[in-house]
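ok so I'm stuck.
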Amino acid sequence: MKFLKRVRSRERDHTYVMGAKMQKQQRSQLEHKEAKDSSLQIEVEQFFRPSCGSILNRRIFDYRFFDPYDQKTYDEINLPSNLLDKPENTILNYFSILREAENLTSQLFGGCGTVGNAMDPYPIAYNFFTKAYHQKMPYSSYLSSFEGIGHTNLIKLYKLPNPNNVQPLQFFIELETINGTATGVSSFQYHYGTVSVVKEEGLYKIDAITLTGEDFLCAAYHGWRQKGEDVVDIEYGGWCKLIKKRLPTKKEGYVKTIDVIGTDGNDYRFIFIQLTNDTDELVTQLVKRKQGQWEMSHLDPTDCIENKKQ
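replied:
not stuck anymore, here's the structure
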C-alpha cells in the first residue's frame, strides 16, 4: 500500500501526454525586450505552416501482428526481441505501433466511426518501456496521457551527439498528431522533445520521454528566438561576450550547425533542429578546447546576465 501511495503521489506531480512527462515551454521576458531593440525583419507567414515531409514511423504492423495480443493486458505481453535490438529500431517500432492508436473521448472526438487500430496498440507499446519507467508512469497514467489523440506521426528523429558514449542514449524527436476537439473537428498538434534509450536485459528500451508543445502564434508575433543564428549572436555573443567569429551555418535537412571561434580560445558548436513551426530549437552545445576533442558543453547564457547584475 505504501508503494501504491508513492506511485499515485508521483502521478499527481506530473502531467503526462502521449506517454511522456509534459514540460512547459520556457520563455524569457528578455526575449521580448531584445526584439523591440532589434532591427531584425521576420517573415511571419512561414510560422503558420504545418508539416509536409514524409513520416518516419511507417513500419507495417497489420492485423497479423496485433492478433496474438488481442484481449491481453500489458503484463501478459512479451515482445519479439528483434523489435528492440537497436536503439533506433526501438524508437521507430514503438511509434510505428502507436501510429494508428486512438483514444478519442466523448469530450475530444473526431473522425467517422472506428479510427485506426483503436486502443489495441497501447498495451503493446507500453512494453517498450524500462521497468524504471513503468514505476514512474503506471499503465493507467500512460493510457490516459493519450486521451483525445487519434493518430500519431513521427516526423523527425535525430541522435544527439554523445562524445563519451554514455547511457542513456538521447534522441531528438518531433511528433505530429491528429487530435479530437470539443467540436468534433480534428486538428493537428505538434510536439518536440527527447527519447532516452538504455540497454536492459540485452534489449534497448525507452527509459524516458519528454515533450514540449509547439505554438504557431508565438514566433510570428514575438521575439527573436525562432532563428538559431540570432540565438547564438544575442545570447552567447551579446550576453556572454563569447564570440570572436561566427562561421557560416551548415544545414543538412532540418539540422542546423553553427560553429563559433570563442574569445576564450575555444571552439564552440551549437546544433539546432528546425521545427515544423519553422523555429530553431537548440538541442546540443559542444566545446573543443585547444588540441582537444569535441565534448559536451552546458553553458547557460542567462548566467552571464546574472553575473553582470552582481
